[in-house]
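So, is this right?
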Amino acid sequence: MAVINEHSPQSDIDFAMPFVFSLFAKAWYGDVSVTAQTENFMKILLTILFSLILNFTNAQFVTLSVDTVIYGIWDLQGKTLNINGKISGNVIIKNAIIEANRYAQIFDTNVALENCKTDNFSVAWYGAKPTNTDNSEAFQKSSDMCIKNNIYNLFIPEGAYTISNSWLLRNLYNGRYIPWSLHIKGQGNIWSNKTLLRYSGNSFAVGMQLAKGVIFEGIAITGVYSAPLNLGQEYYFSDFPVVPGYSGLVIDYDGTNLTSGSTGVRIKDTWIEKFDVCYDISPNGVTYNADIIKLENIKVGNCRVGVRSGQAQEKGNEINNIVAWGNTQILIQIGKSGKWQAGHYIVRGGNIAGNVIQLFDVQLSGWNSFTVYGLYAEGIARLGYFSAQTSQHKIPIELDGLNIRFAPQSLAGKQNLIYSWAQRLMISNSNLWYYGVVGDTMTFAGYCTFNNVDFGLSKWQNNYINHLDYSNGNFIIKRTQ
């Protein structure tokens, strides 16, 4: 193992010059004194020689092939640093272009980087690996160094990583949050947990604050939340235990020193389960923004709520291709956390199964609408609750292209399939059937307009309905004989 106390190149020349001069003089002249003119000539000659050596070195790669301990500041001055061993010690590496195996550790967590570059940073570089009992420090150090050095790509290799502390993705300057951007990529997808974070703490697993243009993909996150077992009809009428703040992935978790929020975040090819809330947006009750958020190819399960939002500036947000598998009370909840305001959300496509009780819990206020296109679900107890908290209750809610197979009453009991206090709730171009059952009666409570909806081979009963509009002639009912 090499040990280096690092100085600047010029200080090395100044330090070495008297010794080199003395040795050179003895070799050239013997043990005799030299004139001042000769001494000055030799100094000039040696300075040129050292400059040539430094210039030659500056033009080359610097390679560390063994474990090395370095102290102080190591300024590479733009050189490429190829690391095959591990660097440890209290050192700041400056102005380096880093190249290394992205599956190997190359830094101790005491090593800091300043104005360094690399195409792909890896959490393995700070020692993250599946065999560790806790990878919290390695993950935190990796993201902090990427954000500080404006390194955009952070890679998480395949494996299951235990973390006990919340992974805080944020940029702090003098104690205040400032914007940051990062592309965090694992090796999993919506149906694979090849890159898995196992969270053993009691808060949230991963939190972003004031994220701008961030991409988070290919990563599964699992906690320890225990959803109730499905032991019969009681399960479909139950409220799951609430564990405040226990979420898988949170966008804008803190409202203590700013009001601005994240923008343009993309969460894709992720799988989160065993939390009170899997994807939690703006729960802090203070910040704004959290707009243009895209959740794409996401999976939830074994949770109380799959996706939750909480304030009105969440505009232009989309949930595309959502999959749910595992005991879940509510798939998507809008306007019932944080500031208790509804953002603007569009849901496009998905496949919902595996003991999900309710698809939607939507409380609109202000001016934001809620729209769903092309969602498939089977075995659910009810479509959900819809309300529009304005004096006229006129905010539009549109559910289009649904293909729903409700759990039969023999399994889930007799349910109101819709509770609606939104006068402009419209369900169009959809199939609403009981799963494999002919004789169960469908019951809807509240306001709803049906347009070109097929209720399958079921009786239909307008019990407790205050308003039902099917006057356009596109309403289809197939009653049992």
About this structure: The first strand starts at residue 2 and ends at 5. The chain has a mean pLDDT of 85. DSSP finds five helices and 38 strands in the chain. Residues 40 and 62 are 33 Å apart (CA to CA).
